[in-house]
């Protein structure tokens, strides 16, 4: 627990283990002429399908509004997350673990190799099944309403993700239930990332450039800037929108579509004035689910670009490569996909 950033006194400088070499920390584009597309789920069905596909092809990211998760649920989630990180250290010490295999844990300063680069973030990561059942029994008991609010937020957010996948199927000519079953029924992950105030944001990162290794991710970013997306070789800042989810495609979706849709690198910057907390739900396949390009995207002129492997094998290989490469902060994780297994 001594590693938890949010429990430490305010620092006057960034410790050496968090410092990123300047050449590996290019600034975001100075001209904010590009912004992520916004998909309004209250629009006409055909327009929504087309908007999701267009946004996915160009950015791999978009923001979604009028998604059906109420403002009250979002506010309750924000409040209980703040309450959790404000708890005394002794009330959450039992949750702390550096064991990456634990489904439910509190950890800090993500490390990609022993003694390697650390990042300016504390994280509460929890897993749940769907239907939920007793999969929340090992979640934190404090604050008092945490389990109730987290479960409601997780289930509703996962539902939005599944709706988006179905709309994407229709837009791409897949059967509507293509992503049902094993491709989406692995443990869902609810990740609460807390980025404390940083004395010098120009020297470190909250999270390094990476692609999500799951199927699809939905993030409620809150009002503080921090998320940046790689677009045409430049980093663009994501402008937070009230009550919106930022949606991005994971590596498994790129594989299923044989590269038509891309999983795009993104990173998180820190802030010297404000702490930032984001809440994300990751939808992923079952460990034993075979993931490969769908037949609908294959032909004699367009052979498979990726091998078909189980999601479990992919995750293990993905972690090994990350450990060996230390990411170098600029490595494109799409190169660690099925082609290289």
The percent of residues in helical segments reads 10-25%
The residue-averaged pLDDT reads 89
Q: In CATH, what is the homologous superfamily?
A: B-lactam Antibiotic, Isopenicillin N Synthase, Chain
Rg from alpha-carbon coordinates? 19 Å
Written as H for each helix and E for each strand, in order along the chain, the element string is EHEHEEHEEEEEEHEEEEH
Q: What's the total helix number?
A: 5
How far apart the termini lie comes to 36 Å
How much strand content do the residues show?
A: 15-25%
Global outline: globular
How is the biggest beta sheet arranged? 8 strands, mixed
At the first level of CATH, the class is Mainly Beta
Strand line-up in the sheet with most strands: 1-2-10-7-12-5-4-3
- What structural class do helix, strand and pairing data support? alpha+beta
> What count of domains describes the coordinates?
1
> What is the architecture at the second tier of CATH?
Sandwich
Which regions contain 5 or more consecutive residues with pLDDT less than 50?
320-341
Number of strand elements: 14
> Under CATH, the topology is which?
Jelly Rolls
């Amino acid at each position: 627990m001594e590693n938890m950033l949010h429990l430490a006194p305010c620092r006057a400088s960034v410790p050496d283990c968090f410092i990123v070499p300047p050449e590996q920390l290019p600034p975001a584009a100075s001209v904010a002429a590009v912004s992520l597309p916004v998909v309004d789920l209250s629009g006409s069905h055909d327009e929504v399908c087309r908007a999701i596909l267009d946004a996915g092809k160009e950015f791999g990211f978009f923001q979604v509004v009028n998604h059906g998760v109420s403002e009250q649920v979002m506010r309750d989630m924000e409040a209980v997350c703040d309450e959790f990180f404000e708890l005394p250290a002794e009330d959450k010490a039992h949750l702390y673990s550096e064991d990456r295999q634990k489904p439910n844990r509190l950890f800090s300063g993500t490390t990609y190799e022993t003694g390697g680069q650390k990042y300016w973030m504390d994280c509460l990561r929890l897993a749940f099944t769907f239907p939920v059942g007793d999969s929340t029994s090992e979640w934190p008991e404090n604050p008092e309403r945490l389990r109730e609010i987290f479960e409601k937020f997780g289930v509703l957010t996962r539902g939005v993700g599944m709706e988006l996948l179905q709309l994407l199927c229709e837009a791409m000519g897949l059967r509507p239930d293509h992503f049902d079953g094993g491709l989406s029924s692995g443990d869902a992950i609810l990740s609460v990332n807390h980025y404390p105030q940083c004395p010098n944001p120009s020297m470190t990162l909250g999270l390094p450039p990476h692609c999500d290794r799951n199927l699809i991710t939905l993030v409620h970013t809150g009002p503080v800037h921090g998320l940046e997306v790689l677009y045409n070789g430049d980093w663009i800042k994501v402008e937070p929108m009230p009550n919106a989810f930022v949606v991005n495609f994971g590596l498994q979706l790129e594989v299923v579509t044989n590269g038509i849709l891309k999983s795009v690198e993104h990173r998180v910057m820190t802030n010297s004035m404000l702490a930032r907390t984001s809440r994300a739900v990751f939808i992923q396949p079952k460990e034993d689910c075979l993931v490969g390009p769908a037949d609908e995207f294959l032909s004699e002129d367009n052979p498979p670009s990726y091998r078909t492997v189980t999601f479990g094998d992919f995750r293990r290989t993905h972690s090994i490569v990350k450990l060996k490469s230390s990411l170098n902060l600029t490595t494109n994780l799409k190169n660690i996909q099925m082609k290289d297994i």
